[in-house]
Amino acid sequence: MKTTILLATFWLLFTAIHIPDTLNVPKPDDGFILVEGTKAGEDYKFTEKNIPVPVKTFYIAPTEVTYAQMALYCYDNGLDPKIFHNKGWGVEEATRAAVNVNWYDAIRYCNWLSEQTGYMNKAYDIYAKVDGVSRIITPKDSIYWKEDKSGKVFWDSIKYDTTSKAYRLPTEVEWEYAASSYSELGKKPQLYAGTDSLSELEKYAWYEKNSESRARKIKKKEPNKLGIYDMSGNVSEWCVRTDKLSIDNLIENRRLRGSSWANGADQCAVTHSYTSRLGIRENYNGFRLTRTH
Hints:
Blueprint: H1 2-14, E1 33-35, E2 44-46, E3 51-53, E4 58-60, H2 67-77, H3 103-116, E5 124-130, E6 133-136, E7 157-160, H4 172-179, H5 182-185, E8 236-238, E9 254-257, E10 273-276, E11 285-286, E12 290-292
Parallel strand pairs: 8-11
Antiparallel strand pairs: 1-4, 2-3, 4-12, 5-6, 5-7, 8-9, 9-10
Helix pairs in contact: 1-2
């Protein structure tokens, strides 16, 4: 009990999240930004399919998950926090965007934070075989953390609870929609997260030209029109496809959106994306959280 209280206290030092009054009725005051969805006839023209896509109202974190936030998660689960830092960058900086995050880490973190803040129905139910029977597993199950040498975990599937309002990864549509400030500008998405001008990009993004070859602290650049930071540059962010919220195939690659500190300006557009293996750790990959409205 003392450990849980201590962790919650530390968490509040680094974020605006408040522990709810009751575990059954979460009352998040987490500083997330409300992103208004599309209206009839104003659907977002999503890059992936190049067709208008409706977007429901949702909440998104104004910043990427930081090293300090990942460290609390590690201390609570007996992990080494240095996993999410790059050794060659010197002293760990608490508010630097976390790196070396794989897709499994991001899913585990979402569920952990949901538990810490009182969400009883987490966004993700993780299934694996325990004693020959497939069931939902928790951090108390060793298989929850077990990975082979390639980084593949021994899970069967992940089911997304569509009724949950707990923490989760953004869908690709949500990510691009928020990055482009579409709901703020109306039918005119921006090229970069905060500007349409290449000459102004340095004001909004950490990328190859100005990053000094490392991930940087959050909130050091200007936010986009919705008040969201670092959606062009700093670290690329894990997402999920809208049509694959529940996942039976835990082998195929997953998509990341946005550019990173290592990318050139040509990859800083909000439409930029790439795929990566679920278990791979790269010092330019991180993530950002969302919640369903």
